[in-house]
Amino acid sequence: MQSRTWPVTSALVHYGSRLCLIWACMVTPGMAATDPDITQLESLIASGKNQPAMELASQLQATHEGEPAFDFLFGLAALSVGQYHIAIFALERVTLADPTNPRAKLELARAYFLIGEYQAAEPLFQEVMAMEPPESVKQNIQFFLTDIGLRRNEFLSKTNAYVGLHAGYDSNINSATSITGFQLGGLQLKLRDESRAIEDGFVELKAGANHLQPVNLNHNYFIGSQFSSRTNLFKNYDLAQLTLSGGIQLYTDYGRWRLPLQMNTMWLDGKSYQSLASITSELGTANERSEDAWYLQYAQANFPDTAYRDYSMTVLGWNQQLLLAGNLPHTLQFGAYLAQDRPFSAVGAAASERIYLGVSIGAEWRWGSPYSVEAALQWQNSQYTLVQPLFNQMRNDLFGHFELTWHDQINKKWAWDLHTELSQNRSSLPLYTYDRWQVTSGITLSY
Description:
α1 (8-22) runs antiparallel to α8, α2 (36-46) packs parallel to α4 and α4 runs parallel beside α6. 26% of the residues lie in helices and 47% in strands. The chain has helices at 8-22, 36-46, 50-64, 68-80, 84-97, 102-114, 118-130, 135-154; strands at 158-170, 181-184, 187-190, 200-216, 219-232, 239-252, 255-268, 271-286, 290-302, 311-323, 331-343, 354-366, 371-388, 393-409, 414-427, 434-446. The strands form 2 sheets. Strands 1-4-5-6-7-8-9-10-11-12-13-14-15-16 form a 14-stranded antiparallel beta barrel. The chain has a two-stranded antiparallel sheet with strand order 2-3. The radius of gyration is 29 Å and the shape is elongated. The chain has 8 helices and 16 strands. It has 2 domains: 8-154, Tetratricopeptide repeat domain (Serine Threonine Protein Phosphatase 5, Tetratricopeptide repeat), CATH 1.25.40.10; 160-446, Beta Barrel (Porin), CATH 2.40.160.40. By secondary structure, it is of the alpha+beta class. It starts with 7 loop residues before the first helix and ends with a strand.
């Protein structure tokens, strides 16, 4: 499970909105309201009528701007409707007129926090804490200060790397059918052995590195690389992959926005087999118990030796992660996606577009350090849009995939895992129906 530091902000915004209830949503001492318009504005804010309060404050701005009582209420109204910069201008005037006003400083600190100006917000929160506010206000301020501290750590650049060695068994290294032949017209055709399912043991090497470079507390760059090489013990069909990725990540009022770019190259038996390049736009939102992400991806796949198979792909998807209640961080993950492949070729079966819909569910259970179990289930329906010329029939595939992993974090650097997965593809064309089962075990060194 990835770090959950950034979603804290959403929860703190909720806690911050409660400050108005905890520390009496009224004009503070020294700013007594005698004007009936100001009294009406105060009443609207106290009753939670935020939009009417902002509309009235905007009407009164021309005649009352600069009056501490009005500016304070104007700032509260602007905060309540999300107009943070207006709130800052109004509350700054109040604190300049009365530097000892704790409530104005607190609301100004909250406004700075909500626009990401943490260096300005932190000292104001600390000043209010030093004024000994009510205990409930102290607790809420501490939430803000804790989050600012977490974000300061996020501002530090981070680099991590790993290398792992695994061994295992694969019942179908080439994801091929197990049938011996098929009927084509009046002919019975027999498949060659290399076109049917091949089982073998294997050894796999995995390595990778990632670097995060913050620009400020709301903006960072990330780059990464992953390499894997699977060597079968007795058969060919050795696979190697190299993935390079990079992009930007922004924290905005709407959530976390990411723009990753990725390039993947695959080699089969030492020869270049496929390259895939993609760009993804992802918007994520979160609260203290869940994270949601919507993404749109465009990719292109190229096959150096079989260019007629080249295609582009567009994917629209959604993922959700739920943190379950309890002392240990058990999680559930859900996902759904809709995609379309568009081939570049206009000849034969390769000219068929593919539309597919997929859903997934996953879970992670932790039984205290160092053990955890992860499970994932995926289902996908693929529909080809053209009749397959060889069979004179439309192709439709139903694909299912299940994974189960036992993870033992031996210490901070070393981990051991046992992993198994089962895949099934059921096709309207028997030639593309297959089963595949894999089991692996190995160690990983992280640093």
